[in-house]
Amino acid sequence: MDPILHLQVACAAFLLLHVLPSTPLRPALVRALGEGPYLGAFSLATVAAIVWMVVAYKAAPATPLWPGLRALPAAAMPFAFILIASGVMTPNPTAVAQGRLLARPEPARGIIRITRHPVMWGIMLWSGAHILARGELKSTVFFGSFLVLAGLGTLLQDARKAKVHGEDWKRFAALTSNLPFAAIAQGRNRLALGEIGLVQAVFGLILYGGFFAAHSWLFGARPY
After folding, report:
1. Res. 6: pLDDT tops 90
2. What is the pTM of this model?
């Protein structure tokens, strides 16, 4: 198989796998397996798909498309890591099995005031920066898969939560926005940097520093 086609097939399989939770097949699998085993199987399948993508990416030739903006990830990734770290460390009603948080008196705090999908936006920032930095076909296919998945994932998560949680979701959606800072700009929420917390920001920057220092060793490419 052509190496680029192989990469495209691997990326397509990865994307299709992540459309599964938004189809009727998910509740059927949960009923058959149980919530825990389903999530475990889904996680294993995700890891396997990513490994397949990485193997296909490494085997594909580098076909330049434009002069890469090599320094862009070094500038963008601190913000991506802060978004991801804060998103993971902040209780979020959009997360898996966290819908009960919608019933809280104040369900949108910290980084959730900025965007209700901080992890997804961190992934979009990471993938988009790497597409522009690499400027080649295989990187556009590989990182573009994560960009598409994260962007589409925000919409699918919102639709699924709205269907399940009804009025609680409407209240939460009125206080928040998918697009970062949109709810704040529209006066539906406020910026509260103190709620995000110094620990979360520092942890994100530590992760950034670790990946920056080890980037060449881990991925075989300079981070700048």
Report:
1. yes
2. 0.90
